[in-house]
Amino acid sequence: MRPKLVVDYVVYLIVRLFICTVQATPLSVCAQVSSFLAWLANDVLKIRGKLVDSNLKHAFPDLSPSQRKKLARRNWYHLCLMVCEIAHAPRKLHDTNWHKHIKMKDIHIQIEQALGRRPVVVLLGHFGNFEVMGYCTGMLGFPTYTVARPLDNPFLHRWLEEFRSATGQIILPKQGSAPYIEQVLDQNGTLALLCDQNAGRKGCWVEFMNRPASYHKAISVFSMASGAPLVFLYMRRTGGPMQFEFGVEGIYDPATADEQKGVKEVTQWYNEMLERVVRRDPEQYWWVHNRWKDDRPAKKREKEKQRLAAERKEAAKLAQAA
């Protein structure tokens, strides 16, 4: 066995042992441990501290340093508890008791789309517990085809894929999945995509949380080419562990829209949906993620900055006039 595979397998065993320990621990205790780990990660070890603080400073310029620190600690609590919820999901969530853990909001919109004779593109972000949402969607009888990047560790990848597909969710690899996606849409299937992954300098740049961010153009193209409506879903924690609200934030249907949108306009639309849910529960977003990587030339960045500033100024004038 190659040295890397040995290391990967050892890491896999450690992770599985950790997950088994979490599964044997009551969720109430997991919440207490998550609170301690959040304090440890944020206040003591300061893991990705500069990045998180920078992200929060740009997104919420009115917050004081102490307020940003508290928000960052709550964010770490969410991330730690999210892992515990994923570990407990197969044992806690079933088709007979899901309603004790999940409240639905406007979900009839998604059901109508899923039962229709058209393809559907479901969008979600690194917000709330999106892994449990994928698990529950399949459990409720609405399996999706989800595009995800394979993990570098093959043993962990196989284990995570087993969890994701346990209730009918079908995972498509991020690379080389175009023919499969086309087939899914042609057969009126439901495609689920994380919409807030960095697309690099060649992506579609729109403003997200007061800064330019790059989005994959393919998401908009999928909808425009197939006529599939875009449905933005979220699953946010509403109280203690494993207590969620599963809702529809918005829908864009190219077949019924008053005005057809281009790639940039569609991208801007679902970006606004994501920003709305993040601003309602900011501690449940992945601020540890370097979402705003911008490696474009300085002139291009400055030009984009000026354009976005002009758009904000125009929007403010329109709001005052209204």
Automatic annotation (TrEMBL):
It comes from the Bacteria. GO terms for molecular function: Kdo2-lipid IVA acyltransferase activity. It is an enzyme of class 2 (transferase). Residues 296-322 are annotated as: Disordered. GO terms for cellular component: plasma membrane. Keywords: Acyltransferase, Cell inner membrane, Cell membrane, Membrane, Transferase. Residues 296-316 have a biased composition (Basic and acidic residues). GO terms for biological process: glycolipid biosynthetic process. This is Lipid A biosynthesis lauroyltransferase. The lineage of its organism: Bacteria, Pseudomonadati, Planctomycetota, Planctomycetia, Pirellulales. The gene is lpxL.
